[in-house]
Amino acid sequence: MTKIAVLGNGRVGGSLSAALTRAGHEVTVADSAPGAAADAARTAQIIINATPGASSLKRLVDLREELQGKILVDVSNATVDGPDGLPAGLLYPGSSLGRQLQDALPGTRVVKTLNTMLYTVMTAPGALDQSPTAFLSGEDPGAKQVVHGLLEDLGWHRDWITDLGGIDTAQATEAAVLFVPHVIRSSGFSPFAVSITR
Question: Mapped to the 3 state alphabet, what secondary structure does 18-84 carry?
Fold first, then answer.
């Protein structure tokens, strides 16, 4: 059992917290109450960032002390939204939210994952007709191994998980969010994921 803090209690955070609790972990969800994120992060071993990507950097930098030495799992994408509320561009072109977080929090082990799919697939990857892919980006091999285990707890088979390398590779996976509005307009709001087939 691992103590996990989920920052963000929207659809993504709620889905992840429920699934990780079912898997036997001790999960705390931080809502928007003052001090809730700091309290949750302080006592957790792993912190999951499920806050809106456009505001994630500031929120997490404010938790620098609480995140020191911890694993930060970043599942958010930092985008500039269009009039319809769907992603229209990247907030950090030429970089990524994952890279920005690692630079701002050098004492924290940032791992980027689960950001290339509709949120429902994060906790039910087997529900798709074809095998999806979960990518890992991060500088610390040990942290990525821990996150790999969490993904398996969420139902991801080992051969569905691909370690891309360092945190700079998050630039590529975050850019995949630009597919999202086109897929939704074409096929509707149904579960999908970026998948690498071999």
Answer: HHHHHCCCEEEEECCCCCHHHHHHHHCCEEEECCCHHHHHHHHHCCHHHHCCCEEEECCCCEEECCC
